[in-house]
Fold these 2 entries.
Entry 1:
Amino acid sequence: MKAWSLAGPGRLELIEADAPKIAADDEALVKVEAVGVCGSDIHYYREGRIGNQVVAYPFRIGHECAGTVVDAGPRARALIGRAVAVDPAVSCLMCDQCRAGRLHTCRKLQFLGCPGQLDGCLAEFIVMPARNLYPVGDLDLAHAVVAEPLAVSIYAVRRARVTPGMKVGVLGCGPIGLCALAAAQAAGATVYATDPIDWRHETAAALGAAWSGNPERDDVEAEALGREPAGLDAVIEAAGEQAALDQAVRLLKPGGALAVVGIPEAERVSLPIHELRRKEIDVLNIRRQTDCTEAAVELLHRRPGLAAAVVTHLMSFEEAGAAFELVANQDDRVIKAIIAGR
Ligand SMILES: [Zn+2]
Ligand SMILES: [Zn+2]
């Protein structure tokens, strides 16, 4: 089969690879029909690492995908022929973390397109356990890919304990931030959103943010706190920027929750401990997600405008290199590029 492989920083190559084989009763062979380019993929693509997770070349990239099940082991045959969204995290189900319901921090986690773990999904086929496959019905497969980042955002909003009537800040309006906006709205919250790239926060406004702005130009605290003098109940930091973390703390009310989803380029970030302490802010680190993919698929069905706003570019399988460059350079008002079809 054909697959894209990273030969070095910024060097994607189309290769011929062995098609994966079903090795267990509960596994299914998925014909991959749509793959999303994620910010984390761009870290691997450009820098060859995220923190101490370092790429060894050649590296098969990609973890966001959707496709059709074309074959399956005896215990997964009900999925054959069905269109599915893929949860890229394969957990062992045996370790202390899995037994505690923390499948996402499994000690033996095998994640698609993650260094030293599973080959990426930017290929014609993948094999996954049936429990990682979520039927999407008649959802457009390019939109079904958004189930992966949306699941992460739903998880962040759940962790921040967002309930109806709450005021939520979303700092960073890339795919995760826009999905967090939708997840918070679905939980009944009013959302304030920022991004230093204008078309991104404008997309948040189009999706119904109560206010959106550019933190490099607008006085975000005056705008948000002018409308919500008590402060925000929760902030989803989806920028991976020190300035956004600092701003989040200033926006939050006492007892508020700061959910950190963004991946910083720096090894360390700092937080203003006295303000955190006096306000008793809960700082929540978000490691991908667990148990939120089904809710994500459901929200995509309920709100088709979300994926339509997030997916800005559809490219062919052969154009994968161009798709990565587009996202890496943030050209052409890109939010999410999907590599779809052949
Ligand atoms: Zn991703
Ligand atoms: Zn485990």
Entry 2:
Amino acid sequence: MATPLLHVIDDVVTRSAGVSLRMLRLDQVHPLLSGNKWYKLHLNLQAARECGYPTVLSFGGAYSNHLYALAAAGKLFGFRTIGVIRGEILQPLNPTLAFAQEQGMELHAVSRTDYRDKTSPEFLAELTERFGACHVIPEGGGNEAGVLGCTEIASSLEWSAEAKDRLVTLACGTGATMAGIIAGLTVPCQTTGFSVLKGGEFLQQQVLDFLRTVEAPDPGSWHINTQWHFGGYARSTPELLAFIHDFTERTGIPLEPVYTGKMMYGLYAMLAAGEIARGSEIIAIHTGGIHVRASLARDWAD
Ligand SMILES: Cc1ncc(COP(=O)(O)O)c(C=O)c1O
């Protein structure tokens, strides 16, 4: 894993808001296990190894960055991997699932109704009967090992000696990455998570639960912004796509519309509305996932 760099973003919006903005480029730490993925996976793989499980099984939708990374990690570190997919698997496979399969992941479709039961003991017993003993990672890598791994992200956050108002921003799906970062912070800092899902209010409780799972105190200095979901998970609008295009043209930093694009749009909206204190030092976390653009381009073209 490469050490993630902090990329300075200095433009008309940051200047008129009077803030400094840098982006933590987790998207660059590894060509296949980029973003928050390695942080969520490595302690899970270690646990699987220690328990002697040759197989790792996890869950996700057709665009799952988590399954993409798990498949790559399985190939790199010698695990058989099973991806339980929500809903039908359409042929030809989209680039995300095609990549996972190429890495050796066995794809197993379950109906959307059955998928809702994915944490029930009966459903997990059925999967174990079918695939043999395996280490099961919940959807999105949101378990104790995943959250603990994400605490390491906080050690890449560097602040100036004179920083007073520090703000970390990131995109939230399950809230596991956010909880890990909050748990790993060593200096006073606000954290804002942008829900990429419609109805993201549930993330408030989920982050609290994840903090409890890793026995971290709740510092109270965090907030879930539910405003910038753009219609829901993997939904988009022309404004969001135009923002992403413009941002990438100006900065050279790639974004995608499922996670990082929504987070940066929301952050820029907050800056433009004067909702962030002047003088703040902001670090936006680039949680990766860029490869999903190929799958979206194909499906949105249909
Ligand atoms: C690129 C990207 N960013 C952000 C997230 C959100 O992470 P979390 O589910 O831990 O909130 C995910 C999902 O894992 C993701 O794939």
